[in-house]
Design goal:
Residues 1-21 are annotated as: Disordered. By secondary structure, the chain is of the alpha+beta class. It has helices spanning 26-52, 62-67, 115-126, 170-179, and strands at residues 89-90, 94-99, 139-148, 153-158, 194-203. Helix 3 packs across helix 4.
């Protein structure tokens, strides 16, 4: 049997097994996989390092500093500080009189309280205890305030029930008057035209001072 002669020309299609494992297109794919793995490790490692990394020591609080001072501070000298003028005690405000033009009188218990003047007078008394006269016994000063919404005037004086004479209370009265708030008459709620109110301030003895 005669075999046909072998053709010396190359086949029209290459063998599917000829470039297996040797092709140039395989390296780019492998490098992309390696780069992706390295990038993933970096993305995971950096946040972990930042989260678990060393942290700055916290600043000790003032309480901790006092606690660390040690028992030796217990023998430190204690300084006595003058607390200034002794506090003053105020009685509740009472309305002596309220009235409108015309006949008839209004019982004091039916009068309304003008809180603007009551609060202002109480604050002025408390802020000026240094102006009060001093003594070995407690002192009471009766402050009487008259208000006239028609003439828009006030009058502050010391009542008769005070334990000191009026001439000795002049400086205190001057300090309290200067500290009284300036009224905006049309904006102050009130039911009557004229009022007369009273509050008693009690000052403790001059030697009865608080110390730290």
């Amino acid at each position: 049997m005669i075999r046909p002669p072998l053709s010396s020309s190359p086949p029209s299609q290459p063998s599917p097994y000829r470039y297996l494992g040797r092709g140039g297109g395989e390296r780019p794919v492998r490098m992309q996989i390696i780069f992706a793995l390295v990038a993933g490790m970096i993305l995971v490692a950096v946040p972990l390092y930042l989260w678990r990394g060393p942290r700055p020591d916290s600043i000790p609080s003032a309480d901790a500093a006092v606690a660390d001072a040690g028992p030796s501070d217990a023998n430190a000298p204690v300084f006595v500080v003058d607390a200034g003028p002794p506090p003053v005690t105020l009685s509740p405000f009472t309305t002596i009189r309220c009235m409108n033009p015309g006949p008839g009188k209004t019982p004091p218990e039916r009068c309304d309280h003008v809180t603007f003047f009551e609060d202002g007078l109480a604050r002025a008394i408390r802020e000026n205890t240094a102006c009060a006269p001093t003594g070995k016994k407690q002192t009471t000063v009766s402050f009487v305030l008259e208000m006239d919404f028609r003439s828009k005037k006030t009058n502050l004086f010391v009542g008769r029930s005070s334990s000191i004479k009026r001439d000795k209370a002049k400086e205190l009265l001057r300090c309290v008057k200067r500290a009284m708030p300036k009224p905006d008459w049309p904006t102050i709620p009130h039911q009557y035209v004229r009022y007369k109110i009273n509050v008693v301030a009690t000052y403790p003895p001059a030697d009865d001072k608080l110390s730290l």
